[in-house]
Structure formats: C-alpha cells, structure tokens
Amino acid sequence: MEEFKNQQNGENNEPEIETQENTNEETLMVSSRSSVKKELIDWVVSIAVALVIALLIRQYVCAFVRVSGPSMEPTLHHNDLLYVNRFMYTPESGDVIIFRPDHSPKTPYVKRVVATEGQTVEVDEDERAVYVDGVKLEEDYIKDRLVSDGNMEYPYTVPEDHVFVLGDNRNNSVDSRDVRVGAVSKKSIVGKVLFRLMPFSKFGSIYK
Q1: Which of the four, 51, 74, 140, 152, has the lowest number of CB atoms within 10 Å?
Q2: Which residues are catalytic?
C-alpha cells in the first residue's frame, strides 16, 4: 500500500515539476523579447537624437561647401571643400562668404565682402580699381584687375543689412556689379568661409 502511494505521489508531482519548468522557460522568453525590444528602442532614440543634433549643427553652427567654378581664383579653386562658420556671424570687409542670391536661391555663391552697410562703393572701369568710401582697395588676392564695372550705377551706397561682394577673379564673376545680384542681404548669407578642408595639400586658412 505504501509503495503504491509513493508511486501515486510521484506521478502527481511530475506534472508540477514540468509546469514549473515551462513557466521558467516562458519567463526567460518574455524577458529576452523585452530586452531586445528595449535595445531596439534605445538604438532608435540614439539615432534620432544624433540626427537632430547634426541638423541643428548644420543649420546654426557650420556647413561644408564645395566650390563650383573659377570665380574666386586664385584664392579658391573648383572642387575645393570649405568649412563655413554660421554661428553668430556678422559680415566684415575682406570676409569670404557663402550666400544664396535672390535671383537663384538654390545655387549658393561664394564671394568676398568689399563693403558693408552704409559704405559707398565706386568701381572705376578706367582705373580698373575699386574704391570704398573714397579709398582705393589694395587687393593682393585678386587674379587680375577688373575690366568691367558691370551694370550697377555708381557711386553706390550699400543699404542697411546688406553687403557688397565681388569675386576675386573679377573678370569671370557674377557678383554685386550685376543688378541681378546687387547688394546681398544678410538674411541670405549662409556664413563665413574659415578654411579649406580639401585638397589636403592646401588644407588651412584661406586668409593671408
């Protein structure tokens, strides 16, 4: 009788053991799924945060621009890669800037600021020189002295919140001498070129 009871007890215990093991396995599976889900969520959040930070940096801090064309030779050349500062920038004479002209906002231009708001510009075609507030600019950075004053009327006073820009390659540049460009609004300025990244052989500041 005792032997039968022991066997019966043993049979009754076996399902309890199996049930416990199944419960443990299910718990492990649920825990594993939760861990994978949490890890995926963490990755998605991290990537989203990184993208937002990158967009904010690009929008407000800096930009990378590749030069297209010869209008800033000999300072800059076609395909040069530039680092542009956007953070709290106020344009000054001599700065090389990136801006989006009103007549072609999808095509950024790179030019040099020669005058800021309130200053008077005179482009003398006969002397092949540029005057700002009556003072002739000494420009060792230009490729050749200009041969055309464009179709602007001089003397020209730069309006408030605008700058007057010229390409260093004066004879192959669409700039403020052209009424399509004219004075450049500060709102259209992307930023100031700080230095050249590529080609590596010319890495560094573009200012002498």
Answers
A1: 140
A2: 71, 111
